[in-house]
Description:
Helix 3 packs antiparallel against helix 4 and helix 4 runs parallel beside helix 6 (237-256). Strands 9, 10, 12, 13, 14, 15, 18, 19 and 24 form a nine-stranded antiparallel beta sheet that branches. By secondary structure, the protein is an alpha+beta fold. It starts with 19 loop residues before the first strand and ends with a strand. The chain has three domains: 1-30 and 80-132, LysM domain (Membrane-bound Lytic Murein Transglycosylase D, Chain A); 31-71 and 137-320, no CATH class; 345-508, Glucose Permease (Domain IIA) (Distorted Sandwich). The chain has helices at 94-101, 105-111, 159-166, 184-195, 199-210, 237-256, 279-291, 294-300, 306-314; strands at 20-21, 28-30, 84-87, 125-128, 174-177, 180-183, 262-264, 270-272, 345-352, 363-367, 382-383, 388-394, 396-401, 412-419, 430-431, 436-438, 446-447, 452-458, 461-462, 472-473, 476-480, 487-491, 494-497, 507-508. A hairpin with a 2-residue loop joins strand 5 (174-177) and strand 6. The longest helix is centred in the middle third of the chain and has 20 residues, at 237-256. Mean pLDDT is 86; it is low at 1-17 and 33-72.
Amino acid sequence: xxxxxxxxxxxxxxxxxxRCVLTAPQAELWRPGSSNSPSGQxxxxxxxxxxxxxxxxxxxPGQPILSPTPDAQRFLPTLRVNDEQxxxxxxxxxGKIAQKFQVSLDQLISANQIGNPDLVxxxxxxxxxxxxxxxxxxxxxxxxxSELVYGPASMTLDVFQYVKSTGGYLANYRxxxxxxxxxGAEIILKVAREYSVNPRILLAVLDYMSxxxxxxxxAEGTLNYPMLYFDGDRVGLYRQLxxxxxxxxxxxxxxxxxxxxxxALADNGMTPANGTINAGTAGVQQLMAALxxxxxxxxxxxxxxxxxxxxxxxxxxxxxxxxPMIPADLTSPPMQLPFEPGVVWSFTGGPHGGWxxxxxxxxxxxxxxxxxxxxxxxxxxxxxxxxxxxxxxETGVVVLDLDGDGLEQTGWTxxxxxxxSSERIPAGSVVAIGDRxxxxxxxxxxxxxxxxxxxxxYNGEWxxxxxxxxxxxxxxxxxxVGVEYxxxxxxxxxxxxxxxxxxxxxxxxx
Length: 510
């Protein structure tokens, strides 16, 4: 893989050229009972009916199809016993490096005596300290995998009706984002759809941290930070919950690829993961590790923590399980390159996060001609990779359902991101392969250049573009090299390489 040719600060806030960084939109908060209450509280989006097509199988209560007791020991990556060195690369951030080597950000900063973590240079050599492990983590299983992803199991909950029925602070909450005002229930569903995380676990962790779902008057200290994640850039329910969903995804997908040996706790401690947990539980343990030190983490991941809160709200979680989420014989359907014939595009991003940096590396990026690095609406068209139904069309986003049932939570779906509102295909449209979807732009995220972000899910689970089911686009197969955004498309010995600008190596056409 060719090295990146641009110089970029490697601090926490670094953003790379022609890459998308999915950030929460600007928000204006309205608290129930405040003087700035909005007049007329009609939701800007209607509650979507949730058909009960995929109900859990009938069985006696308390008899899970995935046992919450420990299973056979799973092989886990071993902890390092010696310090290592790492040379900062373009696009690196200290946060990503800490996650990669599974040390806390504070440990990394302290070991290298870094005064300003946003001002470290490409080429700087970092010492990666050895994590100091504690006793092994809990073996208790909190939720099945299907309760973490926005898949078939999520269809059994009407988010709007449930939030209304609880009568808590969330039921009367309003927050204004870039594209309008959202109710509390709409924010839950928005985060669930974007990050593909089950709304039940979002509601459970929210209530565990702040009581927003079931209490009419939660503690004053939770009103700006309902997940108790005290970051000035994460004020309000949407930003707090988006951060939480990203952490849930991080634990889930790292566990799925056997890349999680221990959890970095909020107090800089390290807890080795127990090899008998499942991916859904790993997601919850990761989120709780980002919030708590060891004693509070132990409680949160025990049967008295998130599990108890979830059970009191929705019942025994394993009674709702739908397993397996991904069939053993799953194959990716052949698809077409997402642009019109005879137009040369640039392959600008190899496998990277489907939504946020916590999800599986489900996405690849293409930039339309002429490859300019500013943000503008392109005249070129993004097109349907295969036939299907548009189940969602909103700011920057189009989601195409491939299995014909018109449901986002089931079967194969394709996410198009950064689609301009101008001439964007409306929800409900039935498309054939090659039909026009919309124009690439920078809408729906932050980017230094106009491009298209393309990702896939199956039953709500992000499918890695560098895994067993890579993209097959007109025969071009997506490959990764273990470095986010780096990768290739390969066809009959020919290779197109991902670069974040227009170069001969990344040109591709149909």
